[in-house]
Amino acid sequence: MCHWHDIPDDGGGVGVMTAMRSRVAIGQPAGLPAEVTSFVGRRHELAEVKRLLGLSHVVTVIGPGGVGKTRLALRAAEESRRNFPGGTWLVELAALENPALLVQTVAEALSVSEHSTRPPLNALIERLRGQQTLIVLDNCEHVLAECAVLVDTLVRALPDLRVLATSRQALGIGSERIIELAPLSVPAPDGAAATPFAESDAVRLFAERAAAVVPGFAVTEENERAVAEICRRLDGLPLAIEMAAVRLRALSVHQVLERLDDRFRLLTGGSRAALPRQRTLRALFEWSYDLCTEQERLLWRRVSVFAGGLDLEAAEQVCAGEGINREEVLELVAGLVDKSVLVRMESDGAVRYGLLDTVRQFGRELLAASGEEATLHRRHRDYYRKITSRAWAELFSAAQQSWVERLQRDHANVRKALDWSLREPGEAETALAMTAELLYHWSCYHLSEGAGWFDRSLAAATQPNEVRAHALWAGAWIALLREDTSTTRARLKEAAEIAERLGLRVTLGYIALLRGMAAVCGGDLETGMRRYEEAAHAHRDVGNPIGLALALNRLALANAYLGRPAARDLAEECVALCDLYGEGWHRSYALLALAIDAWHRGDIRAACEIDNESLRYTMSVGDQLGMGMNLEAHAWFAASERRFERAARLLGIVRTFWQAVGARLAEFRYMSRFHDECEAATREALGERAFQAEVSRGAALTRAEALRYTLRERTTAERTAAAGASKRFEGRIAPLTRRETEIARLVAEGLSNKDIAGRLVISQRTAEGHIEHILDKLGFKSRTQVAAWIKERLSEHADDAIADAPPGGRSPGSVSGGRTSAARTT
């Protein structure tokens, strides 16, 4: 008897027929094989297949080999059996070598008589006419054209027929609906916000199949990390996971994991009853490889040099040449996507292509055997060398955000290019230059990793030239952010020696800036400000806008902290400089300085508006330090307006934020005095119990909710809730009495004194007296000011009501940015 774990994906002729024989032997209807192991996961996909079978004549499940297409199709067919009184039939095509025999193969599977004198196709149509029938046409990819013609002919002639096909490539006919089957969900790596371990279908499959092989096997605290890593390394592919589980007959979980680098040798434990291509992982991918054209095979080998993914431009630059013209790359990429070798991914309008790690590993083995490996590695490195150079050159421009996002997408490829350069003799200086040009990438998103690349590249490339000087001051910045003062001093000292000898004025400007930052981090703000002024002069003299902006925004923030009038001029100069180049990141820090300056001048409304503008940009690039400082400032501003409940809630948001980021204010920690004063004033005003309650409410908000609360942005549901909360509010808003609050709301609605008197059934003179008291208490001179004030306070009340709602009653929505890596530089 065949077990399902022997045929997890594409059926497997012998295995399926064995299961079918077993079904007949126990008196069940023929047509589909019996299930003898559990069906794991795929609830959404199963429901979608069944839904589409009710809407379309042809449904095709596509995906790479081993992903589970056959098992899903058979389960969907089994659960849909009642809808097809004419029968539900499996036609297994994997063993069919001669496409000319396709019609006969289908006819035989449906028990169409071979003794008829009619052509087989006509006999098949007559057999199915007037019957509601479902045919599962399994493994169509190697006879794709013939399957497309046959299926199109059948569904045109038979309106009651449904065809459910599985293939690595779509049939490409007009009546077809396609479901692209992804691998099973795998556990998220530590710290990532994806599938939790307990919810991973890949882990469930491994555990169930392992228990069948090793009775008593269970996932425990001791082996769960290894199990999770096996599932990740095998891309969630059911066939590969089941083959790995079979290896537990002889190996431990940890031993299986250790041997996955040679997975094609390790995973050979398929069923003896299965088709040859399902008995080993290598055979499965050789089947896919053989289905490709010669040029597609060549491209498969070459794209395997990429890590993480690639876009069309990268494929054209790296993979064209010697057998592939650049203009042919697009069609070849499309062909590999169609054959489920490449996975198309789209985000924010950008299309990229990914490879499952097992698909990539297969390609790399073939690339190594082809003799092209060294050439492709160099092409890959050279391409990403150009990318990092352009990113650095265009950092201070309107293209800034797109480069930030581009480097994030290509982080794995950049890492691979650096590693190759440091391993290849004579290429260390290229790695050093790339590492320095990635300063913002490291400091904002990958601080610890960046520190490692600086250590390696500076140790490998020791020539005292401009490249090394650049890397030394950039590496000093990274060391400073990691509070490694001795490394910071040593690198700045060497950088200064090289820069002075070679006359590198830009480098000297950055060294002055870094020395200022070091002084500020050491608690000496005045010395730091003098260094910043020196850096500003140096960068202004050589016309380096990015260095000038860095110096100006740090000077502006320091002066704003001290309450000095110079803050405004410095910040406005920085904003004007950034606007000239279309730059936004450094501008956001200058805006923060302007917000703090406005706060000191008592214009809190302007302070909040400016800080919001700054926050929206830091959110867009995922700058965690900038976002944290923006959130801090909002808390300070709220406390100054005596909006203590909001201030406390923002302090809770800030606390959670800094805990997640792992830093607090970084080089701007001198501003922590504002935080401490805000907290003390808020705690005193609310009392300890109420203070802690509000802080806890803020701390419990999700990142998206916290940012929306800060910005006073609402989803559609929240806007509806806010309107209801405002209407239902019947309390008083200090310093007004309940009656005065009620009258202020009527003023905001535009009612005259006479109308207010009529609405409240009081005399007009009484209404006028209340309004005079309101104006006096608030220090206002007009009804317009009262209307604006009450509307803002009611909006705040609505915000608080929404934030107080239980999590299940909130719509978390989404906020741009939201990266979780620690960000520290601008």
Description:
The chain has 826 residues and is mainly alpha-helical. The strands form two sheets. A five-stranded parallel sheet has the order 2-3-4-1-5, sandwiched between helices. Helix 13 (294-303) crosses helix 16 (357-370). The longest helix has 22 residues, at 783-804. It is globular, with a radius of gyration of 34 Å. The chain starts with 12 loop residues before the first helix and ends in a 22-residue tail after the last helix. Residues 1-30, 270-278 and 806-826 have low confidence and may be disordered.
Describe the oligomeric state of these chains in a short phrase.
single chain
What is the CA-based Rg, rounded? 34 Å
| SS class | mainly alpha
DSSP helical segment count:
40
**What is the molecular shape?**
globular
User: How many extended strands?
Assistant: 7
Which sheet architecture does the biggest sheet show?
Answer: 5 strands, parallel
Strand content range:
under 5%
N- and C-termini, Cα separation: 65 Å
Would you identify the regions where 5 or more consecutive residues have pLDDT less than 50?
A: 1-30, 270-278, 806-826
Helix content: 55-70%
Mean pLDDT, as a whole number?
84
Strand order of the largest sheet: 2-3-4-1-5
